[in-house]
Amino acid sequence: MRPSPQASDTAVTASRPAPDTVGEPAGAPLDGPAEHTGAASVLTVPVVQLLGIGKRFGAVRACDDVSLRVRAGEIHGLLGENGAGKSTLMKILLGLVVPDTGRIVLRGSETTIADPSAAAAHGISMVHQHFSLVDRLSVWENVVLGDRGRVDRDRARKSVREVGDRYGLRVDPDACVEDLSTGERQRVEIVKCLRRDPGVLILDEPTSVLTLEESRELFTVLRRVVADEGKAVILISHKLDEIVHATDRVTIMRQGRVVARRATADTDVRALAREMVGRELSKWTAASAVGALDALIEPGTGEPTGGTAVLDVREPEAAPAPKPRPAAGEVRLRITDAHARAADRRPLLRGLSLEVRAGEILGIAGVEGNGQAALGDLLSSLLPLDAGRVEVCGGAVAAGRPGAMHAAGVGVVPEDRHVSGCVLDMSVAENLMMADLSSVTSRGLLSRRRMAERARRLIEEFEIATPSPDTPMRQLSGGNQQKVVLARELAGRPQVLVAAQPTRGLDIGAIEYMTERLHAAAREGIAVLLLSTELGEILTLSHRVAVIHRGAVVGEMDRADVDTERLGLMMGGQAA
Amino acid sequence: MIDDLAMVLGSSVRLTVPLAFAACGEYIAERAGTINISVEAMMLGGAFNAVWGASMTGSASFGLLFGMLAGLVIGFVHAEFSHRLSVNTYVVGLALNALVLGLTSFLLDSIDLTGHQVDALNIPVLSDLPLLGPVLFAHRWPAYLLVALIPLVWWLVQRSRFGLELRAAGENPQSADVTGIDVRRRRRQSVLLCGVLAGLGGAYLAVGEVGAFNQNMTAGRGFVVIAAVIFGGWTLRGTMAGCLVFGAADAMRLALPALGVHLNSQLLIAAPYLLALLAMMFLAKTHRQPAALGAPFVRGIV
Predict the structure, then answer these.
(1) How high is the pLDDT of residue B31?
(2) Chain B residue with the nearest C-alpha to that of A97
(3) What transmembrane ranges does the database entry give (chain B) (predicted)?
(4) Residue A311 lies in a domain
């Protein structure tokens, strides 16, 4: 039997004294004695203490009585699913969000943090996942942005080089940020933070845009930062093996509350996964929740705990994912040597070719920004080709002509449902009918009766939780919005279904639902093309995996033959 | 022939000067992310207030200060509405343009204004040069302010801390905010600066070149200034070149009849605007504008 969330909460609470009490004395022992960083840091007052923090956004309780203690000289993991409240908590620490209740204690003295510059003055610095470099400025200009006083170009350049040399983060200070790769950009971010010599460095999902090699380098740098200079690092992540590999202690959040605190050495991936989602994972979702960064641990090096724990997951959970289908169906979608450029002449696709057969799920693996979005746009008729052709069921389709792909039988679940998946201010019924109005229109007039009828049928079939078909889309949860998009696309009886990041930002229940639906679609004989940057999701869902790098497919393999190390190398552009 | 050329070029420079003052301001505002369409109102208000101030004080030079003040007030209203109250910046700009046009026309009828003009300053020796002398070195004294103002504006935007933060606010306000920059404040400040400089441009037109105020005397020069910034691809050098091109087009309008070329005068009045439109057609696509130009910034949506 699965323990209910309440049950697991009390179990956790019972295991240690009063975990979330506001009045708890500073530095009280919170978890086991195991420490990687030696006895000294155990005795010191925590650098950062967040005590009883609460924050509501409307009806949503983002943080509810959350306490977090971080010591100098440790990498502290903050683990939780999307929406667990990790980011809100860090925004509070950074002065971007003002908490409703609770106290912030820095180095033993209580403080209020009104804005990011106040946080910087207290030595708190964050490497953001998005939105913190200005593309059109040079590296050194970005690095000094947010300082005070006169701009000294030569000093800034010199300090960029110095910090780069000290931590092994080499960047050219005069390069323009927009010309840099994602890995280099992150290096700039980290240099920007470290140059201010912060006591606390926060990283928000730092590996989500990195290749395996770049992730490894990052963790080496972080270890150097805490070990050599006694700084504290807070690592926000939902990838378990990353937490297990890189952190000393971990705080686990679920639905705005802290549900557990652990010394990383005393725990393993399975236990963390259970605490993160509050129940046992089904086999399919396990791999995608865990992430598939197991190749992070360099063979022979790395902490032994991390290594074994990760292997634990890969063997029993990720491997028995979908059975490879008996290769049968005819080719439904064939893209041959596609070349395309963006409006600013930047190449998006460079000779991409692929085939998807009826009844199979082809997963496109790759680091974000290697042409996945362009491929999605191409199959949504948004991107014209410079060269190459697209065939659906054997017939050529004009790329870029509005509606051509849809007419040929390509259904698309777009990457960002709010931007291009649905209209938030229109009703559920209207959103369901949007792609195909012919069935509910006669002589140019919409039949509201037929529309409501059809909508009700789809709502029932796809288990969409909505008060009525006339409810505005905006009031639905993310998972139900995604169900509406999926229902609309599948109701059109497509030959090919393109699912771009279908589970991004969804909770685990909705992920399970989407997984099941996509499998069902494949079973019914639809050719499914899955675009995802979560390797776990690709491995869970796909029958075949193709790797995309710099706008071309650089390798393909059956799911059964996948070797994560080789996949990682291919994603990073190495021939393998 | 040389005299004709000197006359056309001289009047080109004269008509460029007010545009250049205002374009320096518009350049600052746009780099911070505001397409400040009330620059027309700022110029017109500046022109009127300069003449009014000169009438009251009896000094055309004080009139320039009054003109800058009018621009500052209009800039303040625009900045507060669009970058504090989050009212759509174009709606605010259109309202201000209509308001100032009406207000100055009304006040022109109800107040007695006397003509004043600032002194001309012929640079010794240089103004005696053939051709170049009368074109470049024989102007009303405030025109020479540009020699210092243009490098100063360049330094302010490209080299100072304020300019760095201003450019960040125009390119990526979210990032700037996260880094600890008060984006809306920088944008307000840039609109205020634009107001002062556009007010000065309008004032120069009134008490520098013409010496009086006529109804709607800027006649859309504010929009030409916006076109000049686009023409210049959001660089200061290009913006100044744009001002020269549009100033020269304006000068041709005045000079052609004198040179004996007879064209429909209404068409000639339209010519600079037609040129601005053509320039934008060819240049707007190739030039990259500040990424967040015209996009309002609201904190906290990340």
Answers:
(1) 96
(2) B300
(3) 50-77, 89-108, 141-157, 190-207, 219-236, 267-284
(4) no
Token couple for A35: 């420490």
A306 within a domain of the structure (yes/no): no
pLDDT-based confidence at residue B184 (cuts at 50, 70, 90): very high
Cβ-contact B228, B242 below 8 angstroms: yes
In B, minimum Cα distance to A114 occurs at B180
Q: Is there a single domain that holds both residue A526 and residue A547?
A: yes
A292 lies in some domain: no
Question: With bands split at pLDDT 50, 70 and 90, how would you rate the model's confidence at A200?
Answer: very high
A188 interaction partners in chain B (CB closer than 8 Å): none
What is the extent of the structural domain holding A557? 326-409+494-576
Q: Which phi and psi (to 5°) does residue A246 adopt?
A: -105, -15
Same domain, A206 and A91: yes
Q: Is the pLDDT reported for residue B114 higher than 70?
A: yes
Report the pLDDT averaged over residues A261-268: 89
Contact B168 A134 (CB under 8 A): yes
Please choose, from the candidates A212, A182, A288, A210, the residue with its C-alpha nearest in 3D space to the C-alpha of residue A568.
Answer: A212
A369 lies in the same domain as A514? yes
Considering only CB atoms, which chain B residues are within 8 Å of A204? none
What tens digit of pLDDT does each residue of B189-244 get? 999 999 999 999 999 999 999 999 999 999 889 999 998 998 888 999 999 999 99
At residue B121, the pLDDT reads 87
Q: Which contacts (CB < 8 Å, 24+ apart) does range A455-458 have?
A: A455/A428, A455/A429, A458/A432, A458/A487, A458/A488, A458/A491
The residue among A197, A228, A253 that closes a domain is A197
Same domain, A190 and A212: no
Task: Calculate the average pLDDT of chain A.
Answer: 79
Same domain, A485 and A499: no
The residue from A172, A197, A222 where one domain ends is A197
Say if pTM beats, i.e. exceeds, 0.80: no
The ipTM estimated for the assembled molecules is 0.84
Mutant choice from B158, B166, B172 vs A, greatest count of A C-beta within 10 A: B172
